[in-house]
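Q: Is it fine to ask for two folds in a single conversation?
A: Yes, each is treated on its own. Send the first.
Q: Here.
A: Result:
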Amino acid sequence: MVDKRLLVSALLIPLFILIYSIVTKLNIISVIESIRPMVILSFVAAYLTQVTTLSIRDVIITRMVGSVKLKLTTTLRARLAGNAVGLVIPGWIGPDLSRALRYSKDGMRLQEALSASLSEAFYDVMGMCVMFVALFFILAHEPIYIPFLLISLGNIAGWITAFVYFQANPQLNWLEAKAIQLMPYKTVISKIYEAVKGNFTKPIAKVKYFLSLLALTSLGWTMNVLPFWYYTDSPRMALFAGFLYFVSGLIPIPASAVGVPEVSLSLLLPARVVVQIVVMETVSIALGLLFLHEINLSELKKIAKEIEK
């Protein structure tokens, strides 16, 4: 039986596009039909290039964290499927847990897989936010973009704080132990959490690895925004528009993955263009549905619910 909440989540993006088109008085059919095939292919190619680049980085991270050497095909399929899961489970929980479950399917211990996935999430957010902060000061100083600058700086500060805390406290302390005692499956959660604390910082602690992995991540995000050039006056503004679109998805409000990035993009681009970009980005991500069968969705939902509690 289809989970009603998942069905509702899956319909959020199409529903938003429809409402956005009505509000902006667009003929949605005409807008979608006017997308040139080469533009669609460029967005898909850019997305696949980004995923491949990040998957190469993920191979390095998993080998630094785990005892099993995963292949590029594993991390690539895991990231494609995980991103697709994000279409129906908005936020970080769906994609990151999906990758961890996919890694564990190829022999990686779940504790190690979760640690690797968390480290990957660290670099995903840091690479995106560092690029936006740099582009803000280089290209745009308008007050209207300051909230997005603060969002980026807040995420950078948050992840660095988490890293410093885990690095300074690799073992389970009394406060964490007491909190875990209040949770269901406390024995399992305690073991997983302690393992994650000990392994999460490994791909981050050494400066040479940190800089290399951050650069590789930033390159991946940059590759994904290049097709925005088709809708802007210059490659520089294409970069800014693309990173604005992605960073706005980090706003810590319910369902921030739907609606907020698209409205934010409207600050730079016409409504017609926003709809076309959303459609092409969604189509690109949906390609990962081809690998969704490799992830146990029932197990994913169960773990996600426990984390949300």
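Q: Second one now.
A: Result:
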Amino acid sequence: MVPAPGAGPTDDLLCRAAQALGRPVLSEDKQVLRQARRLGLDSYNTLMLALALCAQGHLPLEDFPRQRERLRGFARYGAQVLAVGDAVYRELLEETAGS
């Protein structure tokens, strides 16, 4: 197995395993997430997982802002990632307000 361009051997192995199992890649590592995209795999960081839990009713939506701030304490999310997360959160709020 030859790693995709720009991927380290561990990144590639993780992504190829997810591909073989038909599973998404879950990671906070930007290089792993990039490798997953190169391979056409679904991938999620913890911010998006928290939002998915909110959407499915496993995490109260009102808890998300606190969880977001806790994540910012250790995760190195760029402004664009945070903006996408905030937009998804607003959409979820609108959905629940309309229900």
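Q: Anything structural to flag on that second result?
A: Two points. The first helix runs from residue 9 to 21. The chain has two domains: 9-44, 46-98.
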